[in-house]
Design a protein that fits this description.
The protein contains 27 helices and eleven strands. It is α+β, with helices and mostly antiparallel strands.
Length: 833
C-alpha cells in the first residue's frame, strides 16, 4: 500500500534495450511519466553523444514551427486538437521534415514575392503622386525666377511667361523622401548649394506601408530646380545620403500625362497580383494552422526521447542500449507493461531486461500527490525536499496550515469572501486550466485554490469563535449578561445611566451573569465593552501558547516515527526521550497551569487568582516565598522542583551520552577489524598476504576518516543548544498568532468606523446614494487591505510557523526531488531539470 505519510520507496534498475526497440520503449515510459533516467555519459561532451544529429534535426523542425507561428501571429488562430497525438515513430521524422521544409520554402517564396510586389507597388504609388504633384506645380507656379539673380532681362521675362521654357534652361530633380527627414534635408541642401537652388515640396496624403517592416510611413514629394552640372551632382549626393528616391520626370506635360496613365495601368495589374499572392499565402497558413499544434507536440516528444537516449550507454557490441532508471517500487508492474508495449510497437522480439542494482547515492524523494494535495506538498518542498523515506509533513499541513492561518485571520465575513473566491476557481477549474494564462500572480492563486478554500472555511470557523464579522458581533443565542438586576437592586438609576460614560457589570452579582457561557464563541456583549481589548489579549495570548506547544510536541512525536523506521535505537533513548522530558516538564506544564486556572477559578475567586507568568518565573528561580502570588494547588513546590530538575537532567542527557557511546561502538568495531586482519596475515603468504595487509590498512584508514569524535560532539552540542533555546524562542514565536489576530480585528474595526459609519450616519434621502458610494469604497478597501494584504501577511506567518517551529523537530529536508521523464510535464512546461 502506498503511504501518504512517507515518501515512496524507490528502486534503481539497469535497463537493457535493443537499439531497434529503445525509441518506442522510452516513448512509452514518457507517456507513463514514472521513470527518472540517470545520465551515464557525464564525461561525454553533448556534441559527441550518439543521437546528437537527431536532436539537431528536431531543433531544425522547431525553428520551422516557430517561423510558421510568427507568420500566423495576429492573422490566423492555431487550432487546438481535442487530445495530444501519439508519439511518432522514428521513420515519421523524414515525412515530417519533408512536409515542413516544403511548407517553409513555399511560404518564404510567397513572402519574397509579396514583398517584391509591395515594393513595386510602393514605388509606383510614389511615382503616381509625384507626377500629379509635379503637374500641379508647373501649372500653378508663375514666379519661380524671382529667387534667382539673373542679369538677362529677356530671360527673366521669358521665365515669368513660360514655366516650361524655364525648365529647359534650368535643370530639376524630383523625388520622394521620408517626412521626418525633410527639415534636415532642406537645411543641408541650402547650405551646400549656398542658396542657388529652388526647393518645392508637398506632403503625400495617402498612408503607405513599408513592404519589409509593415509599418506605416509618411513621405513628402520634392522638386529641386538648379543650374549647372556641378549643382546636379551635389543634389544627387545629398539625396543619396538622406535615402531619398529620385524618379524620372518628363519635362513636357503631355509626356507626364502619358506616363501617369501607364503607371495607373501597372498599379491595377499589381493590385490583382498582390491579392492573388496574399490569397495563396493565406491558404498555406490555413494548412499550417490546422496541423501546427500536432506537429509541435510530435517534435517535442521526439526531441525529448532522443535527449533521454543520449543519457544512456551503448554496449561495446553496439547491440544493446543500457539505461539506469529510478522508479517507485509500487509501479514496477506498470513499468514492465509499458516496456512490453514499446517492444510490440517497434516490432522487436527481445523483451527488455530489468536488473535491480544497489544504489551508491541516496534515492530521490517522491511524494505522490493529486490536485488537492499538490499545493500543500509545494509548501513543504519550498523549504526543502524531504530526505528519502522520512516523515512527510504535507498530510498534517493540510489541516494545521489553514487552521493557524485562520487563527490570525479570524473573521467569518472575510472568510466567506475568501471561500466564495476559492469556490469559483474550484468549480471553473477546467475552463480556467484550458486558458493557460501567463500571469504569474494569477497562476499562484489558482494553483493554491484548494488551500485558499480551506483557509476560507477555517476563517469562518475561527470568526464564529471570536464572534467577529466585519468587526461586528452576531447575537445568535442571546447574551448571558443582563442589566435588569442592577435596576432592581437600585444600584443604577436613570441619572446614572445618562451621566456615566462607562458602567461596569459585575458577574458576582446574582442575575447579572447567568453563569452559563455563550454556547459557541465569545459573548456578543464584549463587542461594546470598553475593556474588550484587555479581555481578548489574555484569551488570544494563552490560546496561542497552547496551540504552539501542542504543535511542537506533535513535531517531536513525529521524530519518533523516523527513528523507529530507520532503526536508530540510540536516537530514541538519547534524543527523543530527553527532548520530550524537556519540553513537557517546562512548556507542557505551562499549558497545564493555563487550563487548570481556567477550570479552578470562577467569578467569585477570580480576584484572588494568582499570576501564571509569576509562577512560571519563580519556578526557574525556586522562589516560593512570594506572598503576593499564592500557589495554584497543593504540593506545587515539590512538583515544580521535580519538573525543573528533570528538565535540567535532560540537557546533559542529550549532550554527552550519545557522542561517547558512538565512540565506544567505533572502538569496538576497530578492535574487531584488527582481529580479522591478524588472522588474515597468519593464514596468508607472499603477495596475497601483502595485498590483504594493504587492503586492511586502507579499510582502517577509511573507517577512521568516517568517524571523527570532535565533529560528532560539536554536532550534538549544536543540536542540544538549538533544541533547548528553540523551545523557548519557538514558544514566543507562536505569539504571532495573538498579535496578527488582534491586528486584523483592529484594522477591520477601524475600516468600519472610519468608512462605513460615514454613510450610515446619513438620515436624509440623499444618504441612500451616499451609502452606495461609501459601501463601494468600503468593499474595495476590504478586499485590498484586509483580504489581500492581511491575508498575505497571515499566510507568510503561518508559513514560517510550519517551516521553522514545526518541521525542524522532525524534518531534515536534505533530499532531492524525483523528476520523472514525462511528456505531460514537458508539453505543459512544468518539467524540472
Amino acid at each position: 500500500m502506498v503511504s501518504v505519510f512517507r515518501s515512496e520507496e524507490m528502486c534503481l534498475t539497469q535497463l537493457f534495450l535493443q537499439p531497434e526497440a529503445a525509441y518506442c520503449c522510452v516513448a512509452e515510459l514518457g507517456e507513463l511519466g514514472l521513470v527518472q533516467f540517470k545520465d551515464l555519459n557525464m564525461n561525454v561532451n553533448n556534441f559527441q553523444r550518439k543521437f546528437v544529429n537527431e536532436v539537431r534535426r528536431c531543433e531544425s523542425l522547431e525553428r520551422i514551427l516557430r517561423f510558421l507561428e510568427d507568420e500566423m501571429q495576429n492573422e490566423i488562430v492555431i487550432q487546438l486538437p481535442e487530445k495530444y497525438p501519439p508519439t511518432p515513430l522514428p521513420r515519421e521524422m523524414i515525412t515530417l521534415e519533408t512536409v515542413l521544409e516544403k511548407l517553409e520554402g513555399e511560404l518564404q517564396e510567397a513572402n519574397q514575392n509579396q514583398q517584391a510586389l509591395k515594393k513595386s507597388f510602393l514605388e509606383l504609388t510614389e511615382l503616381k503622386h509625384l507626377l500629379k504633384k509635379t503637374q500641379d506645380f508647373f501649372e500653378t507656379e508663375t514666379s519661380l525666377y524671382d529667387d534667382f539673380f539673373i542679369e538677362d532681362t529677356s530671360g527673366l521675362l521669358e521665365l515669368r511667361t513660360s514655366p516650361t521654357a524655364m525648365a529647359g534652361k534650368l535643370g530639376f530633380t524630383a523625388g520622394v523622401i521620408n517626412r521626418e527627414r525633410m527639415a534636415s534635408f532642406e537645411r543641408l541642401l541650402w547650405r551646400v548649394c549656398r542658396g542657388n537652388v529652388y526647393l518645392k515640396f508637398s506632403e503625400i496624403d495617402t498612408t503607405m506601408e513599408d513592404p519589409v517592416t509593415k509599418e506605416e510611413i509618411k513621405k513628402n514629394i520634392f522638386i529641386i530646380f538648379f543650374q549647372g552640372e556641378q549643382l546636379r551632382q551635389k543634389i544627387k549626393k545629398i539625396c543619396d545620403g538622406f535615402r531619398a528616391t529620385i524618379y524620372p520626370c518628363p519635362e513636357h506635360a503631355v509626356e507626364r500625362r502619358e506616363m501617369l496613365d501607364g503607371v495607373n495601368v501597372r498599379l491595377e495589374d499589381l493590385i490583382t497580383v498582390i491579392t492573388q499572392t496574399e490569397s495563396y499565402r493565406q491558404r498555406l497558413l490555413q494548412e499550417a494552422a490546422a496541423n501546427w499544434h500536432s506537429w509541435a507536440v510530435k517534435v517535442q516528444k521526439m526531441k525529448a526521447i532522443y535527449h533521454i537516449l543520449n543519457l544512456c550507454n551503448i554496449d561495446v557490441t553496439q547491440k544493446c542500449i543500457i539505461a539506469e532508471i529510478w522508479f517507485p517500487v509500487a509501479d514496477t508492474g506498470r513499468i514492465r507493461k509499458a516496456l512490453e508495449q514499446g517492444m510490440e510497437r517497434s516490432g522487436s522480439s527481445m523483451v527488455p531486461i530489468m536488473n535491480r542494482v544497489q544504489a551508491k547515492t541516496s534515492p530521490p524523494t517522491f511524494n505522490r500527490t493529486n490536485k488537492f494535495t499538490a499545493g500543500f506538498q509545494n509548501i513543504v518542498d519550498a523549504y526543502g525536499v524531504g530526505s528519502y523515506r522520512e516523515i512527510n509533513p504535507a498530510p498534517y499541513t493540510i489541516i494545521t496550515f489553514p487552521f493557524l492561518f485562520a487563527v490570525m485571520f479570524g473573521d467569518c465575513g472575510h472568510g466567506t469572501v475568501m471561500l466564495l473566491a476559492a469556490l469559483w476557481m474550484v468549480l471553473n477549474e477546467r475552463r480556467l486550466l484550458s486558458q493557460k494564462s501567463d500571469n504569474e500572480i494569477w497562476n499562484t492563486f489558482f494553483h493554491g485554490r484548494y488551500l485558499i478554500l480551506l483557509m476560507g472555511i477555517f476563517s469562518i470557523y475561527t470568526g464564529l469563535i471570536y464572534n467577529d464579522c466585519f468587526s461586528k458581533s452576531l447575537n445568535i443565542f442571546g447574551s448571558s449578561w443582563s442589566v435588569r438586576p442592577m435596576f432592581r437592586n437600585g444600584t443604577w438609576t436613570t441619572q446614572v445611566m445618562e451621566t456615566s460614560p462607562v458602567l461596569q457589570l459585575d458577574p458576582a452579582i446574582p442575575g447579572v451573569y447567568s453563569g452559563n457561557p455563550y454556547p459557541f464563541g465569545i459573548d456578543p456583549i464584549w463587542n461594546i465593552a470598553s475593556n474588550k481589548l484587555t479581555f481578548l489579549n489574555s484569551y488570544k495570548m494563552k490560546m496561542s501558547v497552547i496551540l504552539g506547544i501542542v504543535q511542537m510536541v506533535f513535531g517531536v512525536i513525529l521524530s519518533l516515527f523516523n527513528h523507529v523506521y530507520f532503526r536508530k535505537t540510540l536516537n530514541i533513548t538519547l534524543q527523543f526521550i530527553p527532548e520530550m522530558i524537556f519540553i513537557l516538564c517546562l512548556f507542557g506544564y505551562l499549558v497545564f497551569m493555563i487550563i487548570f486556572k481556567w477550570c479552578q477559578f470562577d467569578v467569585h475567586m477570580s480576584q484572588h487568582a494568582p499570576s501564571i507568568l509569576i509562577h512560571f518565573i519563580n519556578m526557574f528561580l525556586f522562589n516560593y516565598n512570594d506572598p503576593s502570588n499564592e500557589p495554584l494547588y497543593k504540593h506545587q513546590q515539590e512538583i515544580q522542583s521535580f519538573l525543573v530538575i528533570m528538565a535540567l537532567i535532560s540537557v546533559p542527557w542529550m549532550l554527552l551520552i550519545k557522542p561517547f557511546i558512538l565512540r565506544a561502538n567505533h572502538r569496538k568495531s576497530q578492535l574487531q577489524l584488527s582481529t580479522v586482519q591478524e588472522d588474515s596475515v597468519e593464514n596468508t603468504e607472499g603477495d596475497c598476504a601483502n595485498r590483504s595487509i594493504g587492503s586492511g590498512k586502507r579499510a582502517q584508514d577509511d573507517h577512521e576518516e568516517e568517524f571523527n569524535f570532535g565533529d560528532i560532539f560539536v554536532h550534538q552540542a549544536i543540536h542540544t543548544i538549538e533544541y533547548c533555546l528553540g523551545c523557548i524562542s519557538n514558544t514566543a514565536s507562536y505569539l504571532r498568532l495573538w498579535a496578527l489576530s488582534l491586528a486584523h480585528a483592529q484594522l477591520s474595526e477601524v475600516l468600519w468606523t472610519m468608512v462605513m459609519n460615514i454613510g450610515l450616519r446619513q438620515k436624509s434621502w440623499g444618504g441612500l446614494v451616499v451609502v452606495f458610494i461609501i459601501f463601494a469604497i468600503f468593499a474595495v478597501l476590504t478586499v485590498a487591505i484586509l483580504l489581500i494584504m492581511e491575508g498575505l501577511s497571515a499566510f507568510l506567518h503561518a508559513l514560517r510557523l510550519h517551516w521553522v517551529e514545526f518541521q525542524n523537530k522532525f524534518y531534515a529536508g536534505t533530499g532531492y526531488k524525483f523528476c520523472p521523464f514525462s511528456f505531460k510535464h514537458i508539453l505543459d512546461g512544468t518539467t524540472e531539470e
